[in-house]
């Protein structure tokens, strides 16, 4: 079975960006994004494809090279949609702690 290349570790990405910008917040501001956006993009798959692309460009790599688990074999991003419906249902008329409302 062929193994996929692991990509870059989150700390490697952070270190490379900190060397260039001084902090992840400064990197985000230079991209015109909120201060936590770069950190969230690094840590949470599907947070922002635009910022993933910007980080990849800064690091002179493709986003697929940095995060191979977030992309398919053709370099297309995988879907990371979450259903709020499953989290909202408990199946009973009681609270999560078992006490009636």
Automatic annotation (TrEMBL):
Entry keyword set: DNA-binding, Transcription, Transcription regulation
Pfam families: HTH_35
Molecular function, one GO term: DNA binding
Residue ranges of domain Ner winged helix-turn-helix DNA-binding in the record: 8-78
Family the entry assigns: Belongs to the ner transcriptional regulatory family.
Protein name in the entry: Ner winged helix-turn-helix DNA-binding domain-containing protein
Organism: Acetobacter estunensis
Lineage of origin: Bacteria, Pseudomonadati, Pseudomonadota, Alphaproteobacteria, Acetobacterales
């Amino acid at each position: 079975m062929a193994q996929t290349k692991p990509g870059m570790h989150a700390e490697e990405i952070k270190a490379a960006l900190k060397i260039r910008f001084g902090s992840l917040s400064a990197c985000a501001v230079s991209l015109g994004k909120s201060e936590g956006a770069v950190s969230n993009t690094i840590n949470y798959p599907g947070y922002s494809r635009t910022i993933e692309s910007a980080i990849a460009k800064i690091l002179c790599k493709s986003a697929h090279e940095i995060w191979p688990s977030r992309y398919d074999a053709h370099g297309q991003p995988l879907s990371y949609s979450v259903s709020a419906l499953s989290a909202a249902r408990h199946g009973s008329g009681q609270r999560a702690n078992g006490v009636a409302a």
